[in-house]
């Protein structure tokens, strides 16, 4: 069996900590067994390793998430990178062509798709192991995992099995009758009486099922060609394009812990600390959480059942029950991300000004981890001035190499090729000036430091 974990959207229901570059699965608000801060993606990858799946697992993600994924999971994590975001059907189609034409996976191999951020325990992965058996016994085109509901939720989709078909407790699977997306509480309660299950977004198929589906749709089955045509694929979910059109679907009921930590009220339920970052929560503030990423303290006095989240992107103060509405309330509020984690460290935007004549000035605080380096790059629309605040490193500019340390100032004009390796952890204040200050204005020439140094020689 091959596992493909989908890591796509921005998770704006966890604004202001999540944004287009740092999705919810990268927020280090959980705690590992060793007591260290841990993100959702780190947690699930650790669990996959414990379940014996890691050698056969891949993560399908967008270009914007690659560096953060490598920063949290390491450089050896196998990634299938979408050229652009186009919903779950194109992402899964791309993964299928990669497995088929690049990895040479057998057409009879079972492929299981699951979200990158489920909050589950070890028995859930034992259920995933059973999906191959479900496909074999049922002869179904797709095999799903359905979670036995603990209450009539309005937040989840439901899988309704056919009546009288494998509904006894001894049956391994049931045959799916239909799906219901986010019903009212009353409708959900009625469906649960009919043995309805929560749809947790996990499904399996034989690789030839999806490859043949792509052929039927006139889409490429070779990975390289799929990459070229990716921008032409329809923006549609796998549920709408494939699952709801399948004629024979089996579901494996799972009676165990499963949660979607996609909103502040569900996420804080699983946090073992009420306070992360600088701040104070008074003793009479019950069931209140503060997650503060700013360098200034936040104090909460006498307020219960609320969540306060602060970051360079904004500040959220919400009753926990109302917190799922944050995505809708943001509307067209779409500023650039103010914090990003990269393979070499992280940066935070500390000031941004756009002047009337069109010139922009942006100031960043950049932290480069010991032994890591920036890519060899240049910019077409901006000049940069670096002030080294702490640490020491090797700096390359236009194939000339030198040492820089705390107190040094470096000027990088537009078009100048440059890179930096931190010999000790470095902190730099970077001031950009130009006509358009965007992350896309980075033309990367090389990534590996030995290759960059070779260019100098």
UniProtKB/TrEMBL annotation:
PANTHER family: MANNOSE-1-PHOSPHATE GUANYLYLTRANSFERASE
Keyword Transmembrane: no
The protein's name: Mannose-1-phosphate guanylyltransferase
Organism (species): Paenibacillus methanolicus
Coiled coil residues, start to end: none
Single GO molecular function: mannose-1-phosphate guanylyltransferase (GTP) activity
Pfam families hit by this protein: MannoseP_isomer, NTP_transferase
Boundaries of every Mannose-6-phosphate isomerase type II C-terminal domain copy: 342-445
GTP-binding found in the keyword field: no
UniProt lineage: Bacteria, Bacillati, Bacillota, Bacilli, Bacillales
The Nucleotidyl transferase domain, residue ranges: 4-271
Protein keywords: Nucleotidyltransferase, Transferase
GO biological process, one term: GDP-mannose biosynthetic process
Gene3D superfamilies in UniProt: Jelly Rolls, Spore Coat Polysaccharide Biosynthesis Protein SpsA, Chain A
